[in-house]
Design brief:
Elements (H helix, E strand, L loop, with lengths): L6 H20 L2 H17 L10 H20 L38 H16 L3 H12 L4 H8 L3 H24 L2
């Protein structure tokens, strides 16, 4: 086991990448700073138990990821029901097919071009901010943190049926926002 860096070295070496990673997931600069600070504090307090099975960078990222999940867990103190009124029904007809106005457009994008990719992620961030808080939380945990649906339900204290309604609505809203702000501009 190699020696751990000092706290100041951690901040200099990993502070910016942990901050950027966190900011993409919480979309609030002050909160991202707080989570990264908590990450370094937790790492410092548990530095004696670090066993070098993972690299120091991966160890810090694991702590940070857990801090982000803890943030979502604290925000979800009460059970929220989302299955009551279906605000997405206007997207589908009586046979549950897409309505002509709301059917998905063919994006026809070459994702290998860096300018398009950077532009896409900027628009995705803008659209993510427009989601309801629970939709944003579920989307981030599912698609940015790669958590399984049962784990998300447990962390956010929601039922599986509520999870599926929330993620469905989030994806519909994101698709509509991306098409409006990126594909049709």
């Amino acid at each position: 086991m190699g020696p751990l860096l000092k706290a100041e070295d951690w901040i200099n070496k990993y502070g910016d990448i942990l901050y950027n990673y966190t900011l993409q997931r919480v979309s609030d600069k002050g909160l991202a700073e707080d989570i990264v600070q908590d990450t370094f504090l937790s790492a410092w307090k548990s530095r004696e138990t670090y066993n070098a099975q993972a690299s120091e960078k991966n160890w810090l990222f694991a702590i940070c990821k857990n801090k982000i999940i803890d943030h979502y867990r604290k925000k979800s103190t009460s059970k929220v029901q989302y299955g009551e009124a279906d605000t997405t029904s206007h997207f589908f007809d009586d046979a549950e097919h897409w309505t002509k106005e709301d059917q998905p457009n063919e994006w026809g994008i070459n994702y290998q071009q860096p300018v398009e990719t950077k532009e896409f992620y900027n628009i995705l961030e803008l659209c993510k901010k427009k989601l309801q808080e629970m939709q944003k939380n579920v989307f981030v945990m599912k698609y940015m943190e790669d958590l399984e649906s049962d784990e998300i339900c447990k962390v956010l204290n929601i039922t599986p049926s509520n999870y599926w309604v929330i993620i469905h609505r989030a994806k519909l809203q994101l698709r509509k926002c991306i098409e409006k702000n990126w594909l049709n501009n």
